[in-house]
Specification:
Blueprint (H helix, E strand, L loop, with lengths): L54 E2 L2 E2 L6 E5 L1 H9 L4 H9 L3 E6 H10 L4 H7 L5 E3 L8 H11 L3 E4 L3 H8 L6 E5 L2 E5 L11
Parallel strand pairs: 3-4, 3-6, 4-5, 6-7
Antiparallel strand pairs: 1-2, 7-8
Helix pairs in contact: 1-4
GO cellular component, one term: small-subunit processome
Subcellular location: Nucleus, Nucleolus
Protein name: rRNA-processing protein FCF1 homolog
Length: 198
């Protein structure tokens, strides 16, 4: 007779000794946590984020010519594909002077894309573009733009990225510039009378 093969047990965990076992020394034993009863008369503190003074409901009073426009990587790439001059098309869209701003993260992202996007890099290094330094770690441009827009409400964000648009729509008073039908359009920009246009 041959040996009977034992079926191997998969995902079988090793037996572990309980922390309340009698064999464990008193000093190594797990301490029993006692829940403190909440005092009903105590004043409950909660932190509420402070709203910026520039917002009147959805209307942002800090937005005005000359407009500062935060440019995303894909916005520059799509502008090249659509054969649009960045600064001129922005001025045609907003009927005012526009200053395109580019952060270090976006610049780093374009540089990482390599030789294929050399035209985008040359456009980004245009002297008409205002360069914004980044103080945070990492080079993820989307987080950088969202953080900057949350802190300072004086920017319009130019992007074609759906995920970034979705994140920015949650921040009140920040308009989004995008490309459609070979021209720039603006989303959620207050008109001359101060009533927000959606």
């Amino acid at each position: 007779q041959g040996k009977q093969k034992k079926a191997r047990k998969y995902a079988a965990m090793k037996r572990m000794i309980s922390l309340r076992d009698q064999r464990i020394n008193e000093k190594d034993r797990a301490k029993v946590r006692v829940k403190k009863k909440e005092d009903p008369s105590a004043i409950k503190e909660r932190e509420v984020p402070q709203h910026p003074s520039c917002l009147f409901f959805q209307y942002n009073t800090q937005l005005g010519p000359p407009y500062h426009i935060l440019v995303d990587t894909n916005f520059i790439n799509f502008s090249i594909k659509a054969k649009l001059d960045l600064v001129q098309s922005m001025m045609d869209c907003l009927y005012a002077k526009c200053i395109p701003c580019i952060t270090d993260c976006v610049m780093g992202e374009i540089e990482k894309l390599g030789q294929k996007y050399r035209v985008a890099l040359r456009i980004a290094k245009d002297p008409r573009f205002e360069r914004l330094p980044c103080m945070h770690k990492g080079t993820y441009a989307d987080d950088c733009l969202v953080q900057r827009v949350t802190q300072h409400k004086c920017y319009i964000v130019a992007t074609v990225d759906k995920e970034l648009k979705r994140r920015i729509r949650k921040i009140p008073g920040v308009p989004i510039m995008y490309i459609s039908r070979h021209r720039y359009n603006i989303e959620r920009m207050p008109d001359d009378y101060g009533a927000p246009r959606f």
